[in-house]
Amino acid sequence: MIRAIVFDFDGLILDTEEPVYRSWLEVYQAHGEELPFDRWVQIVGSTTTGFHPQHHLEERLGRPLPKEVLDRRIGRRTEMILANELLPGVVQRLDEARDRGLRLGVASSSTSEWVRGHLARLGILERFDCLRCRDDVAHAKPEPDLYLAVLECLGVEAEDAIAIEDSPNGVTAAKRAGLRCVAIPNSITARLDLTHADVTFTSLADVTLVELLRRLD
Fold first, then answer.
1. Is 160 assigned a catalytic role?
2. Same structural domain for residues 159 and 207?
3. Which of 66, 82, 98 is the last residue of a domain?
4. Which of 21, 40, 133, 174 is deepest in the core (most CB within 10 A)?
5. Which residue among 10, 15, 145, 166 is the active-site one?
6. Which helix (H) or strand (E) holds 6?
7. What is residue 64's DSSP assignment?
8. pTM of the predicted model over 0.70
């Protein structure tokens, strides 16, 4: 019997993936360089890859990027993220989970400050019983540490919880921790292989919680 649901954050609850990508793409284009998408997607949902867009571009240019360029990039990222609302279906699925008495957690490879700040700004921080982020564990996704930490915090076993993820790294982390996993791709991850998830939907708005749990069974 399912007792808990663990959500990813970036790209699942709030679309931060597209603004982060677009802000770096603008920097690359302004310098006449291409941002290789196949390299970029390696870092989606994880912090363990060796690819770093700033270092990669600086290597291509043969010089460091000025501080004002990096600051402007952060500003553009923030501007685009703040313009976004919660992704469709998030509030409805949280409401349904609450009505069923399910425990709710977040497992994110971003920092606690980032995740808590956005959840508080969006008015849903208190909906979650437990948050575990990259500064809470030794290894971020695709390692299982984040999910194992959330399970311990929620007091449930892996077989009694499901994960909802948007990226291959996230799905891998959830599966390694023993959870069944639902994939909800976003505009960036829709081009990636998510077939190792137990079930995939195009949006959380497309399926009720009852239907989602039924598909997993």
1. no
2. yes
3. 82
4. 174
5. 10
6. strand 4-7
7. P
8. yes
